[in-house]
Design goal:
The protein is an alpha/beta fold. It has 33 helices and 18 strands.
């Protein structure tokens, strides 16, 4: 049975700022004593002989430290500068103290002692602020940001860089601004926010060229190349690396050359044979050793180990990775150590040694978890998207050990982490997922849980947030009694890729892409071809069919991953042509742990008749959707208005329609309603341009003088909902951005805001059958059926009138299936 384990090759980004002390020592550049003087101030008396001797001694200590630093003897530099600081403090020379602490910070950075760098940097910053020395503040903040970033404190790093940019704007120093923009771009890259990172690096390049600062021009080019490589554009990456290297060679700058050669080797490794890149890595490693850059040494070694592994030299690769891990372990850089451990584990797995691989991966995922602490939800999602393959690799290692239960726990640990933390709340520390917890959820729901995990194809090498095609599929099935079963399927014999099958199935149904809810869509009259729906059933359902419940009323909860979130499970067909919904009651969840959180008791009023908020066919707002440059007025939905009127009558309430269905009027009512039904347009790709990392998705409501009529996913997530059920009877409302944290969009925002369950759509739903399905769904609910059974029966009833899956299979239930 083939295994596929792919490593992480991390393009190394050049971090400016590690050599700052040379420029940071003083305005005149001759040592701490050279300070600007105020010509209006009365001159101080000449120093006494004792004072002159103390000054000479302190300056000698400082200069000895500078000589050691320039010789790459950073330990010696620290010793001399720490002595100098004590002497300057005794003499009350605050400016010299601040300058020397700045130098100590830079030496600590070169040694990877980020805690020491932060401590000295904060002390130096306090003095520089008191002295009102803007230039010194900028230099300190730049290095302080690096220390935060390298120790995994990304939010602090970004805030520090932004503070430095504010200060540097008062100095007009274009070179410093270029340096800080490049650092800010590096922090965004670490978070996986590549759009913001590219914008910052491009701005840095402009500033550097305007200032004639060639080292910074080379740095910005290198960093842009790394970002292009992380997104798979290797030709553009190589062009940027070559341009940066040309400058570095002309300047004879060993530090920039070392980074550039490593980056260039990593890029060529993606498009050529590994033996051609080893000389690049060896030269880069030699330069890193000569300049004392231990961080770069560790990163080059991990790339070199991957190259040796690709050549089949596993023993040499294992030894090289061990050297990388040893260096990374001595540093205080959790991201670097996590990378090194991941790649070491990969090589052990290639050598059929899953036990040491598992140990390394457990340490790696623990380090990665630390990197997400303190981040906003959007930043957690972005950075987790760069980390998920380490969790995937841990899952594979445990499968290789034959421990499928522990592999399932790793699979759960590697999905919807930020989502679960958001739902649980900041005051709750979530326990790691365990099989016992999952079995308890299956028993509580009397449901069969089916969790899928995709293993990338063996030709794929992980870069940033990229995704490879599915090479293998793992499937776990937990029965209501708690029995665990596992299936492992090699997808290489499948005629099309899994992703191709999913796309073809949607095309066959008539779900033609991301329609953005701009029009009204008719239903196809005939049943469309079934080939892809049957092939998907063969891949996803047939291998586990014997373990699924025979009673059609017993729930099945699918836990998809990646592209599987877009699978219309209800419409999958067996060889006899039976749809899955005809045989089973279905719902989905992003993870079992998230499903468990939706089952938690909520603070809701106990009433015989739940309060319902029903709105339909609002007066449509104007919306600008890329690539259209001009605003578009969304088409009215008369069928949605009729649907809302009938559903409101079921709950003995009045529908809110047309011009009355404003965002301003509905949002306050949403926070108290137990059932929310919105029949309108869904805009899965709409984003608020004001957000650095926007959450896609919006619901069209009527605009007024107070609101634009676009209730965005970000705005929804900030609400405090009490709803047991939210139904978005609209187009594409179950779509969004597919990430390692699940689908980021409207459904996620609703559950994060407090909704226990949502019903959303996977494509543009046709008007008439949707209205019929929704009315049947609510009639079933008020008769006491649970949400999953009510949706199934509504689908079957609609299928009798409209046989095409386009008409009835779009809607999925996410979350708690309990009755109202």
């Amino acid at each position: 049975m083939p295994r596929r384990f792919k490593p992480l090759i991390w393009i190394v980004l050049f971090l400016w700022g590690l050599l700052l002390p040379v420029g940071a020592l003083s305005a005149a550049g001759t040592g701490p004593r050279s300070q600007p003087t105020d010509s209006t101030t009365i001159a101080s008396p000449a120093p006494s002989l004792a004072q002159a001797t103390a000054i000479a001694e302190s300056d000698a200590a400082f200069n000895a430290g500078l000589a050691a630093f320039n010789a790459n003897d950073f330990e010696a530099a620290l010793g001399h500068w720490q002595r100098a600081v004590a002497l300057y403090q005794a003499a009350g020379r605050d400016r010299d103290v601040a300058n020397t602490q700045t130098a100590i910070m830079a030496a600590a950075l070169r040694l990877g002692r980020y805690g020491d760098a932060i401590r000295h940097g904060q002390a130096a910053l306090e003095l520089a602020t008191t002295l009102a020395d803007a230039g010194l503040q900028v230099r300190i903040l730049g290095n302080l940001g690096i220390a935060y970033q390298e120790s995994g404190r990304y939010a602090d790093a970004i805030a520090t860089y932004e503070q430095a940019l504010t200060v540097v704007s008062t100095t007009g120093n274009a070179a410093s601004k270029a340096q800080l923009l490049s650092l800010l771009g590096n922090a965004y890259e670490a978070l996986g926010d590549y759009a913001s990172a590219i914008a910052a690096q491009q701005a840095s390049l402009v500033q550097a060229e305007q200032a004639g600062a060639e080292p910074m021009t080379a740095t910005a080019l290198m960093n842009l190349g790394g970002l292009y490589a992380l997104q798979g554009d290797y030709s553009q990456a190589i062009a940027q690396f070559e341009a940066g290297l040309a400058i570095a060679r002309r300047l004879d700058d060993a530090a920039i050359l070392a980074y550039g050669l490593s980056n260039l080797g990593a890029a060529y490794q993606q498009i050529g044979s590994p033996e051609t890149v080893i000389p690049y890595y060896l030269e880069s490693l030699s330069l890193a050793e000569a300049t004392g850059n231990r961080t770069l040494q560790a990163e080059v070694l991990t790339n070199l180990g991957i190259a040796y592994e690709s050549l089949g030299e596993l023993e040499r690769a294992i030894a090289t990775h061990a050297d990388s891990v040893a260096i990374a372990r001595r540093l205080e850089n959790p991201r670097l150590l996590a990378k090194a451990l991941n790649n070491q584990a990969y090589t052990w797995l290639k050598a059929d040694q899953p036990d040491p691989a598992e140990a390394a991966l457990i340490e790696s995922v623990n380090l990665l978890g630390r990197l997400r602490q303190g981040l906003s939800d959007s930043d957690k999602v972005a950075v987790f998207d760069t980390q998920i393959y380490t969790y995937n690799l841990l899952m594979q290692a445990r499968v290789a050990q034959g421990n499928v239960a522990a592999a399932l726990e790793a699979s759960e640990q590697g999905r919807a982490r930020a989502f679960a933390e958001l739902v649980a709340g900041p005051e709750v520390t979530l326990p790691p997922p365990t099989l016992a917890h999952m079995q308890a959820v299956a028993q509580q729901l009397n449901a069969t849980l089916v969790e899928y995990a995709i293993v990338p194809d063996d030709d794929f090498t992980v870069q940033g947030r990229q995704r490879g095609l599915a090479g293998e599929l793992y499937t776990w099935v937990i029965s209501p009694s708690g029995k665990l079963a596992f299936d492992h399927r090699d997808l290489s014999p499948v005629e099309l890729s899994l992703e191709g099958l999913i796309q073809n199935s949607r095309t066959e149904i008539g779900a033609l892409g991301r329609t953005r809810g701009i029009g009204v869509y008719p239903v196809e009259g005939a049943v469309l071809p079934k080939a892809s729906l049957q092939m998907l059933h063969e891949v996803l359902i047939a291998p586990i069919a014997a373990r699924l419940p025979t009673d059609p009323t017993v729930r099945i909860v699918f836990i998809p991953q990646e592209s599987l979130f877009y699978v219309p499970f209800a419409a999958l067909q067996d060889a006899a042509g039976h749809y899955l919904i005809e045989q089973h009651t279905l719902l989905t969840a992003p993870s079992i742990q998230l499903l468990e959180l939706t089952l938690a008791p909520r603070d809701r009023p106990a009433t015989d008749a739940p309060t319902a908020l029903v709105a339909g066919n609002p007066v449509m707002p104007e919306v600008t959707l890329p690539p259209h440059p001009t605003p578009i007025t969304l088409a009215p939905l008369p069928g949605a208005e009729e649907e809302a009127a009938v559903i409101a009558a079921i709950f003995h309430t009045e529908p809110i329609l047309g011009a009355a269905a404003t965002e301003s009027a509905l949002v306050p009512q949403m926070t108290s309603a137990q059932i929310i039904h919105l029949a309108t347009h869904g805009l899965p790709d709409y984003v608020d341009s004001r957000d650095r990392l926007p959450t896609p998705g919006a619901i069209a409501l009527a605009p007024d003088d107070h609101a634009d009529g676009l209730l965005t996913a970000r705005e929804i997530a900030q609400l405090n909902l009490r709803a047991a059920l939210v139904v978005l009877s609209a187009c594409d409302t179950g779509l969004g951005e597919v990430t390692g944290d699940g689908v980021v969009g409207l459904s996620r925002s609703l559950i994060a805001a407090g909704a226990q369950s949502t019903v959303v759509s996977l494509w543009a739903v046709p008007d008439a059958p949707t209205a019929e399905l929704m009315v049947a769904f609510y009639e079933n609910l008020v008769q006491g059926q649970d949400k999953a059974q009510a949706l199934r029966q509504a689908m079957l009833a609609t299928m009798a009138t409209y046989p095409s899956p386009l008409a009835w299979a779009a809607f999925v239930l996410v979350g708690d299936p309990s009755p109202l």
